[in-house]
Amino acid sequence: MASGANTLLDIRDLSVSFAGLRGSVTVLHDIAFSVKPGEIVGIVGESGSGKSVTSLAIMGLLGAQGSIESGSIRFGDEVLTELSPARMREKRGRDMAMIFQEPGTSLNPILQVGFQIAEVLVEHTGADLQSAQRRAIELMAQVGIPAPEKRARDYPHQLSGGMKQRIMIAMALACRPKLLIADEPTTALDVTIQAQILKLIVDLRDELDMAVLLITHDMGVVAETADRVVVMYAGQIVEQSTAERLFTRPTHPYTKLLLRSIPSAHEKQEVLPVIEGTTPSPSDHQPGCRFAPRCPIAADMCRDPSLSLVAVAPDHAVRCCRLDAARELDVTRAVEAGL
Amino acid sequence: MAAPSTSQTARPGSDFFLRFRRSRNAMIGSVIVAFVVLMALFGPLLTPHDPVKVNVLASWRAPDSTHWMGTDALGRDVFSRIVLGGRVSLIVSMSVLAVTLTIGTVLGMCAAYFGGWVDALVMRTVDIIFAFPELIFAILVAAVLGPGTLTVIIALSMVWWPGIARLTRSLVLGLRHEMFIEAAIVSGTPAHKIMRRHFLPNIVAPLIVRASIGVGFIIMAEATLSFLGIGIQEPEPTWGAMIRDGLSQLRTDPHLALFASLALGITMIGFNLLGDGLRDVLDPKVRN
Amino acid sequence: MIEYAARRLAGLLGVWFLAIVITFVAVQFVPGDPIMALLSDRSGDADLEARLRADYGLDRPLPVQFLDYLAHIADGTFGLSFRFANTTVFDVISGGLLISPILAITAILIAVPLGVVLGVFAAQRANSWADTAVILGLVSGISIPNFAMAAFLVYLLSIKWSVLPVAGWGTPQHLVMPVLILVIPPTAYVARLTRTYMLEVLQQDFVRTARAKGLRERLVIYRHALKNTFVPLLTTVGIIFGGLLSGTFVVETIFNIPGLGRLAIESIFARDYPVTMTIVLLFTMFYSIINLIVDLAYTALDPRIRLTNTKA
Amino acid sequence: MSAVPILRIENVTKDFQIKRSALSGENLTLRAVNDVSLDVYPGETLGVVGESGCGKSTLGRTILQLTRPTQGRILFDGNDITRLSRKQLKAIRQDIQIIFQDPYSSLNPRMKVRDIIAEPLENFSSDRSAITRRVHEVMEIVKLPVAYADRYPHEFSGGQRQRIGIARAIAIRPRLIVCDEAVSALDVSVQAQILNLLKEIQRETQVALLFISHNLGVVRYLSHRVAVMYLGRVVELASEQALFENPKHPYTSALLSAIPEADYSRRGTRKYLSGDIPSPIDPPPGCPFHQRCEKVQDVCRVETPVLDALAPEHWAACHFPNVSDKGIRDGA
Amino acid sequence: AELRTNINADPAMVDPITYSELIAGDVMANVYEGFVGLDTEGNVIPALAESWEPHEDGLGFRFKLRSGVKFHSGRSFGAKDVKYTFEQLLIPGNRGGLNAEYLDTVVGAQAVKDGKTTDLEGVTVVDELTLDVRFTKADVLFPIYPFYFMDAGIVEEHGADWATKASAGTGPFKFKAWNLGRDVQLEAFADYWGGAPKIDGVRFLIVPSGDTAVSMYEAGELDVVYVDTQTIRRVLKDPQFKDEMLTAPAAQIRYLGMNQNLYEPFKDIRVREAICIGFDRDAMVDGLYDGAAFPLYGQVTPGVAGYNPDLPAIPYDPERAKKLLAEAGYPNGEGLPPIKVTDTEPNKNDITYYANQFSSVLGMPVEVEIVERGSHIKRMNAGEVPFFPWGWSAGYPDALYFLSQVWYGPSTYNRSRWQNDAFDALIEEAQGTADAKARYALYNKAEKILLDDWGTCPTTVRMQVALVKPNVEGVSLTPFRFLPFGDAQVTE
Ligand SMILES: Nc1ncnc2c1ncn2[C@@H]1O[C@H](COP(=O)(O)OP(=O)(O)OP(=O)(O)O)[C@@H](O)[C@H]1O
Ligand SMILES: Nc1ncnc2c1ncn2[C@@H]1O[C@H](COP(=O)(O)OP(=O)(O)OP(=O)(O)O)[C@@H](O)[C@H]1O
Ligand SMILES: [Mg+2]
Ligand SMILES: [Mg+2]
Ligand code: NI
User: What residue stretches are annotated with the ABC transporter domain (chain D) (predicted)?
Assistant: First the structure.
């Protein structure tokens, strides 16, 4: 994988587990990818595949139950997994910021939203509260919140879902971080605002050379904004490539099937193609290819535990042992065959 | 379909014990509480002396090999009395807790959930009782009822429930606008069930804490009542009364107050550790 | 809000009136009566008893006595004390009027911050030895009877080292030991509850957000997490006030402080009902105002809470 | 589609009072929903799209009587449910369900998934084993491993939580489901499964769906008719086909052109709206969209357009609706 | 310097008319005086009366009052003030307290009491310092009754509510201030007839907790402490107090009352005797009272005139007690109906002891009952309590106080309703017997009747304990509590 000197974020062999009552469950396995400054990397994948956990691991916010089992996360010159908590704290919010998936619960219910944005500025830029509040209002305007001076004094429960999400975004962008992790930043936004937000992110990227880790289910958003894409399935990366290559020449059967499932606004579809079956729960992952039980081209060899990501082209890696069959796989027919 | 894995299917409830075993506070607490309760239940059968046997010539004996904790003003064996007194004190405190927790949470939840006149009615009642200095109110109640164990329980219950109701109400007020409550409403869940299944589990932790800290306060309040002559009558020992009787001799013969306080202290520590432990256990987000 | 406050204030008048009625009725049930207390050994002298009863107006029908009491509340004298000849209740209580509230408020002002800090400390280290130690310390603190604690303090600070007066009221030194004794139970209580609430709040997503913002831990804990525990904590403070004012009775007795708590109990024993009822009424007013403030503060502390008495 | 609507929303308006400060007593009124009228028929999916913050969720919440509308009536099966008491409401709870926008906060953190899903069932039945069976059934339907039944909500990913919410809503087989961003947290493959599932359920049970979403692809896939909301008002209402292929309102057009496509070749071809986004606290005079509308004329700044039938079953609130290819009406 | 001592509650009043309780008495003894006072041994000595003569018919006295006595106001004390005091005590609106009772036998008292007149007929001011009192029936003890004479001019000078503003006595100290709940302050009266006090004043601090009082003493915040019964043990056990302790038996008889009307078996003298020998006075003294008491074998306490030191000890003899019970038809207590022994909370140890003793030694089914004081007294006075330990404190140092009030048949305070005509006759005779010796013989005779009939079970006499700092002199404790502090001296 590209991990040259000029990567901003470099994740190697990251495994994360959660402690449960009856022992711990590993939910991330050997995740490895890197992000260059100014690069927008999209992470897509099955719900529950570990996208959010990956981002929390980067931020060092796995919580009391989660722990990094192995691997390293390098950010600039520093290895995050080895940083002192104090140092880590300084980085958070200033150098790396995160937009959380659940705006509803991620905002403090008893603080005014304007203050919640301003607070970051006060913490990291040493600004006084008043100027920070003014800046917060500007940020709110930037993310498309109407009448921001008035809204700044609202509490989260007075805002609509999309507004809360935009507050989260404004908060994350406040310090113009080097790395922005956006976990489903626009799910609650209508497409016009969404477009505006994405444009804002892209503009900031252009302006500040900000790297973005964009986690989303919206393939359209990925196609539109991401430079590279990481596809995850059941705690593993199954494919990663440039956005262009991934959308034009997806290789892993999961990726292919995934792209097929997108409902289009341009035509009325009668039945959406789906991937049959369910994701295995992290506690009973089988060795070998985890997609195998649902895969139209699965074979015995898929159970081989030594399976790993294989580069199929420069900057394109796939975790599949039947690459040829995968390349050949015509998902349209596979779906129609009712697999 | 993925077959349910063995590691994930567990008998409901077994989680509880697993968590329980993980919580240090809960374990230590439950051992202490179990010890105290067993003493209260069976201790009186095993005591070396008759706890009400007076022998004034042997009054205020310091602890020795026959009287392990010495004797009191009337020469009664302190150890035997502590064992027997534990029974009374526990019965009183547990009854009061049971009564007040029930009344307090139910009314507090109703007040917060229904709002309007229900709230006004409950809270104003609470205000009135609450506004009386606890002791004075208990004295008034007890004075009306005449002395006895039941009186103590009723009087202290009357004094205690409003605090619980207020606390419950404030906790529920905070929860009332949670989305999952709306979800329950939408599911057609009747009010009583919303309270039981949604409010209660989410407010039980602070209530447990209040209850566990309340054990000691109630035991001491009982002592105050009996001091005022409206409590549990001689010769029946209670820890509170023993502490109180011992206090006047603190400088000369500290053992009576000391051992009774110790019994109370250990019990309180047990209940409090258990309470905090239970809180941790009941929280699905375990930490290790 | 203002409307709500006004309505509640009006409601308070009702509460106070009821409190007056209840005390008035309750004292009728208390065994023994003022005249018997006055007569002491001479009770049984029917003539004397009747004469005294007439003197104190106790031979009139209860409703008349009640109205009379109300009238005395209105004129601010609160009637005549039974125990102290020719002394109005106002004169009896005026000297100690502020003492119990001063004690209670001082104790609260110390106990709450202290308890919160300890509770936060324990919560941050939940299920560690430090956590268990804090609980143990606090609980032992409250299981030592206050009388014993007081005796110990007096012995050490007053008799052995002579740094503080044993008893009395008037100088700041007099405040030290009583407050120390009063502070322990509420501190323990607040700390325990804070720990509980904090554990709850610390798991919330918005705390994670606060951390993601890179806020210093102190801000995360005190601004984001702790503030969310204020509603129940404040309620607790209101509840504690109840316990405290009663608690002042004990310290007032031990440390010989001429406050209303002590006076209330003395009056009960002396069956000095006008004094008892007045003190109860004052305490009632004090508590209910504190609780009203607590209720009003809910909205300020948690914007989601709307205190509306539905018009229905 | 039957001719009798199962749900009829009549001129519903919802205002929120926003308190600025307790002392000054300064109050602002926020009109979240403004005079909305809609019908939903059995077996139909009515898509609702629109600006974020335009009142979609609020509309959904008023339908469920989670907040009472300031004005207007909501008829379910012909009965006005805005006037029902708590008790009477319970009866209709069996028939109307909602999938909340925010999956996590709508799940009780102290209940196991099993109990969360079972809750509506338990309220209307007491057959424990049937309930358990149904719980497992719906869990499979929403593709949640049954093995997860004893887990607590925080142990799930965002998408999984949303599926719990969906399972809860469909478990009781309601006749109307308000789906507030019901699939937005799902990855497309699961989303596809759920969408198909909803369709299938609808076919089988004639359940009506009020489908609120920002994902126009999803809306198109599922809806029979679509309402477009803007600043609390319905600005366009039409059949799915008419709306997507022949939008009349400029806001609808703007929406459609802003859809991001999972088609790398079309990257960067989207059109963006510009101009001030109006606030429901002090809405602009005239047409609420005029500040961002390309075709804005003077009249738009003063006069608020009303919902007008521009074609059969096609309403829009615009002074200058798009000219359709069929040329029903001239734009001028 | 000022002398600081303790009282355990606010006095209920500080005026000599309504005066009716102990604490007020502690304070007022320093401010007011009567015909007589007590010496350090507790013997009666003349005070404001220099001498008195009985009337020929025995129905009255002529008092010669002390000359040169000044009230605190500066006015001179004289016969008119005595008469004024007596009248004030009787006028109904004044709520005359304890001292009013001593006037019952005075001619015309009833008329004043009834409000018919304000002039007390039986008291005549002969001249400025001579007073004549006449009785309706003999009352030989009248001169030693502890009156508090007050300044007749005070009301005129200060108004009806003078009591907390001015001082109306002749005693060594003037009333200065009373801060409710805090203290009562007295200041030295320089013109005191007995010589100006050597201290500047007395401050009675109100200290409800006996324990606190001793701690305050320890810390030097009090100079003199009257130790309450609960705290006596602490003081006795602490060697540091050994040399600072004053003790004196209390002039208070204690007995176990048995009401024969309410409990059938009490009618049998054997049962009464069994009870009286069925508990161990010595054990009580040592065990319950830590030695701060004496066993009591009669119904007069030592230090009170008429005390009979030769009374035989009442033994603790459980064997005999059992035998007596058996003879009475209750072997091992069988057949005895259940009974409660009743007292107030502070005495709960005593009744617990009795109950335990009677049930375990005699097999008598006795339970304890703790009650509220006011109602208990009322019920006892009404003769409604069957079995109770109680006490009676003397108001003046003469045995008649005990015998005539507690055991004399018609007395309201005869709470156990024991009645014996011979006894009553002896008491009536004593009341008319001016000669002390002869009177004491009558007391002894009457007391023997009472004891022989086992009409009472004398129990114990409590010891009073006080602490006095070494730098304080001239404080004396008598069976009637402290003497006035007029002779006290505080050295720095
Ligand atoms: N606190 C936790 N305890 C136990 N398991 C957890 C916890 N948090 C997440 N998981 C598990 O980790 C896995 C990955 O979760 P994650 O939230 O990263 O998924 P995701 O890819 O973000 O999915 P989605 O798109 O639905 O948000 C899931 O199977 C989830 O159940
Ligand atoms: N409880 C409330 N108090 C005050 N204002 C509120 C409240 N709830 C919603 N609002 C306001 O009402 C308007 C509509 O909110 P609503 O949640 O219905 O929007 P929405 O269309 O669902 O938006 P989104 O797509 O972003 O979820 C918003 O401006 C919001 O701020
Ligand atoms: Mg996620
Ligand atoms: Mg919404
Ligand atoms: Ni399966």
Answer: 7-256
